[in-house]
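ok so I'm stuck.
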Amino acid sequence: MHIVKLHARFGSIRFIFIRSHLFGMFLTTVTLLSVLLTIHVLFHPDWLTVTAIFVFIFSYVFLAIIISFYAGFRSSGDLKERLDYISLQIIQFTNGNYDSRVYFKANDEILRISNELNELGEKLKNQVTSLRRMADEKADFAKSAHKAAVIEERQRLARDLHDAVSQQLFALTMMSEAAVKQIEKDPRLAKQQMEEVARAALHSQSEMRALLLHLRPVHLSGDSLASGVEKLISELRRKSQIEFIVSLDHLEDLPETIEEHVFRIIQEALSNILRHANASTVKLQILKRGTELFVHIGDNGVGFDLEQKQSNKTSYGLKTMRERSEELGGHFSVRSIQKEGTYIEIRIPYKWEGAR
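replied:
not stuck anymore, here's the structure
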């Protein structure tokens, strides 16, 4: 690791300039030495002795090394500073800040690169605006098709209820009957069976709560995002034993499209936590950060392996959340550690009123 860092450091712009100066010094030294030795061999001047030649060369090399380092650092300073600005500009674009611009006075290749970066930022900004406009149009279309979507959603929930909860209730009935029969014959076995009944009942309860989340309206029905999230969390606090830690900024000026997409993402994330995470604590943050909306959803559940992305319900939910984020021009990231929890972060570019 130290060797890699050292190699990267000596491969920087400053040391490239210093090496070029040192290489020029080496060529000049060889040339001077050749000329002086040639004069000494051919003409034998009294003032040009071998000792004088090597004293001069060593003095020249000593001074040239110092000057090479000084000149290399000074001449590369401006170039390094401008490259750092370009690197910072790229980081700003990566973080979704497409209004950032960089300007230089020198008329050279770096000025051309900076102008091209500024044009790229303008194009990315226009693309985000187009994506948001498309999301608005899609939201309008979704409202017109709301009734059909509700019917389809209820049919899906009916299938889930039959496949999951109904079968679990049937299993609970069978295990309860078996436990009753064993109470007098083998109380110890009956106790174990009742403990299995309790665990199965708790799992069915979590499954039912997760399914009920999807019965909520697709739209916020006039509520703001903060109000809708507060109502949702208040309901889950009453119906589950999970501790919710919530932090919400004032989000009064958000467009309806962003509010609805973010609300559905939070619904999907909480549904996955209830069904799969087996968590005791959930942290939810919706904050203003500069020119973006930041959403964080974390739990201390069992987690999962991100590399194993088979076609299961958890990965489907993550795919849906990612698609909703990207429709708003946002950035979606998820990290999960087995037996420690899952953390979702979403950054959506948005210029708040009064923000600079």
